[in-house]
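During the second half of the funding period, the structural biology subgroup turned its attention to how the target accommodates small molecules. The most pressing case was phenylalanine, which had performed well in the primary screen but for which no bound structure existed. We therefore specified the complex as follows and requested a full 3D prediction, including the ligand pose.
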Amino acid sequence: MQSDDLKSLVEAALPAIAAADAGALEELRVSLLGKNGNVTLLLKSLGGMDPDARKQAGAEINLVKTQITDALLARKTVLDVAALDAKLAAERIDVTAPPRPDSTGAIHPISRTMEELAAIFAPMGFAIAEGPDIETDWNNFTALNIPAHHPARAMMDTFYLQAPEGQRPPVLRTHTSPVQIRTMLDWAKAHGLAENAPPIRIVVPGRTFRADHDATHSPMFHQCEGLVIGEGIHLGHLKGVLNDMLRAYFGVPELPVRLRASYFPFTEPSMEVDIGWSRKTGEIGGGTDWLEIGGSGMVHPNVLANCGIDPRRFQGFAFGMGLERITMLKHGINDLRLFYESDVRWLRHYGVSPLSPASLHEGL
Ligand code: PHE
């Protein structure tokens, strides 16, 4: 092939490439650089030339190949960018558009209760702590003063997992109390012996598990734990925190709160927490009946010691509440299973708009 032919090949190819759409561009690539493409065939023809001619023709053909390859790539880039722009424009979402009424989501009532508790406890100086759903036997039981054969273990209808060789099986935590242990261990490591150790003040909203299923029990349910440890903490602090918290949560300023003597292995003394209500009308704070909503007590010295905290210097209180229970009471929900049926009509009715955050000054 003569230089002139090469020139006209390039002169025909470059404008065609520059004007091609995606389909035409691929056809051009195949017809020029494909297995039987013009440029490929030219390169193959080099084999039959004598060395001098081959040297010159080879350089020229390779130059043409480079020009065409570059042009194909440049055009492809332009087309790709244009295609992406078109796609972005077509798929653009107008985030300022008002939501369609039937597509608005809602915060689940249990999540809402957690948000409300956070809004109540935060101004009292509590931080939120969390722990895993799968716990060690030690955190869930032993460290909480519940030894291996204690009947409280059976009472909790525990789900056990497969035990690693020669160890006690992990458990799905039966209460949020193991987060007390985790928090105290971390705290003791960081501050335990310090002269001016800061107090622990945490609440722990979270999932818990027991092998139970009826109208008032679900195998998965929620609790909120509370823990305060410091110097000189006493029962009056516990009563005050529970009073304030329950009155704010139920929106009943004079709500009667009763601590009733009870037993938990990890508190001493231990108390059930009851609120006043009317069994007949369901009114919270009305009537003369009492309803249990949680457990509480002063942290047992053994538990403090298990976590490396000196019980002669530090005291504290803990409480635990069922979140389904208080949510049902507040909203007049009579079957706990409804929380987990995912009935959209129910969720829409009892759910709360994500645009109205829980805040104390607006009332909960
Ligand atoms: N963990 C107890 C339960 O699930 C409740 C509790 C928490 C009691 C903290 C006392 C102190 O029943």
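Two results from this model are relevant to the next phase. The pocket of phenylalanine is lined by residues 175, 177, 225, 264, 267, 295-297, 318-320 (CB under 6 Å). The radius of gyration is 36 Å.
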